[in-house]
Amino acid sequence: QVQLVQSGSELKKPGASVKVSCKASGYTFTSYAMNWVRQAPGQGLEWMGWINTNTGNPTYAQGFTGRFVFSLDTSVSTAYLQISSLEAEDTAVYYCAREFIAAPGTVDYWGQGTLVTVSS
Amino acid sequence: QSALTQPASVSGSPGQSITISCTGTSSDVGGYNYVSWYQQHPGKAPKFMIYEVSNRPSGVSNRFSGSKSGNTASLTISGLQAEDEADYYCSSYTSRSTVVFGGGTQLTVL
Q: Which chain B residue has its CA at the smallest distance from A48's CA?
């Protein structure tokens, strides 16, 4: 069965960096794009962008350029989200979500989420 | 890209039907049939409920249905059950090849 397992919660100081992992299993990793979605505390879902798992080409949503980097290690079927120069406003749950191949912009399977807390 | 507009909250009694609206523009909801809906229980990851406006993935109850008219999509839940109490989000593919989510709707089953 399809599973996306994300790394555990992180507590970081402002200015630090964090790297969240998303390990996929149960399907061919390079056949489905991976999306990233942010959810700030008590807020809604916000699409961050996606990465083509075949080519490694990332696409970032407005507001997620510069400090946010999507990457892959296809040898271990894992996608990564790295955030640098962390700010308090980056405190959120970050989800990876697999693209639903039949419909652009749609995701079917989600990771369990990774809480990133930025606090001094 | 502005978020799609959803009502902040809706409520209904067990057995009733409710509808959640999701309003966008001709550049997203109105321009494509790539509207999807997700259910999120507190502290959990979202769950995929509807795709391409009105299609249900395998395993999703047929009490959930979707539709669209112009720039507004809708999710209808019939025969409300206590377990349906959750937050619901719509999303749409956009003319910029991006994705936009709605602000979310909290469903309360009275």
A: B99
